From TrEMBL, chains A, B:
Matching Gene3D superfamilies: Winged helix-like DNA-binding domain superfamily/Winged helix DNA-binding domain
Record has DNA-binding as a keyword: yes
Classification lineage: Bacteria, Bacillati, Actinomycetota, Actinomycetes, Micrococcales
Residues covered by the HTH arsR-type domain: 6-99
Keyword S-adenosyl-L-methionine belongs to the record: no
Keyword annotations: DNA-binding, Transcription, Transcription regulation
Residue stretches spanning the membrane: none
Domain of life from the UniProt record: Bacteria
Protein name from the UniProt record: Helix-turn-helix transcriptional regulator
Family matches, as InterPro entries: ArsR-like_HTH, HTH_ArsR_DNA-bd_dom, HTH_MetalResp_TranReg, WH-like_DNA-bd_sf, WH_DNA-bd_sf
Length: 112, 112
DNA sequence: ACCTTCATTCGACAATCAACGAACATCGAA
DNA sequence: TTCGATGTTCGTTGATTGTCGAATGAAGGT
């Protein structure tokens, strides 16, 4: 378990973010995090193996969409809403609104 | 040259559109078409082979982002702005604004 | 008819991706 | 220190992607 690396706000690029959000599961994860609440890895329920979920979280993290924090053996993930809104004004709002309307990634939920 | 097929507005999905727009060249093409103006294939200048450009235009068309019209041997392409705005309110506006600010796909231009 | 122009399609290639199970590493608790 | 829980990494597999050049198909002009 290495230190997760996060790109600087200035390193966040539009094509990369769009690629990260072009997957229904990742879009579902982002929807789940849209309330700004930090979530534990263990809360996340998605219809994929845990290694696949780890991969998706890494893609989101590498794109600068989420931030991961470690506490002991557990990970907590959070949407980088402020950075994203600064970098891409109105984008997340529009995206989240559409994703909710179409229920994209609705099979991603949170337990607990 | 077969009849180009376009998805119905209801068939346009967010993940597909985001995937289509996650490529700098395609984003550049969309920026070029953002004024609503119809453009001839021959006007489009992008740093790729013509077969590659044709491929990118097909990806955009299949995702429902653009509309292609044939007139004789020539093709004209246009952004499906109304359909996109109906389906995804505010999304294109936010996207185009950011793409312009970052000059994503700036190497895609129009001659004539 | 023939040739030119224009755009798509084909075939090939290397690269990337989503997905899985298994192995590994790390930390807290027993 | 051994164990269990947690998350990452590895190796693989099948599918998709971006790219090119060459071949193909469709009009239009000569």
């Amino acid at each position: 378990m290495r230190d997760p690396q996060h790109p600087d706000p200035s390193e966040i690029t539009l094509p990369r973010v769009l690629a990260a959000l072009s997957d229904p599961i990742r879009l579902g994860l982002v929807r789940l995090l849209a309330d700004g609440q930090e979530r534990g890895w263990g809360e996340l329920r998605a219809p994929v193996a845990k290694s696949t979920l780890s991969h998706h979280l890494k893609v989101l993290r590498d794109a600068g969409v989420t931030q991961t924090r470690q506490e002991g053996t557990r990970c907590f993930v959070q949407l980088r809403r402020t950075d994203l809104d600064t970098r891409f004004p109105q984008l997340m709002a529009a995206l989240l609104s559409v994703a909710a309307a179409d229920d994209i990634g609705g099979d991603v939920t949170a337990a607990r």
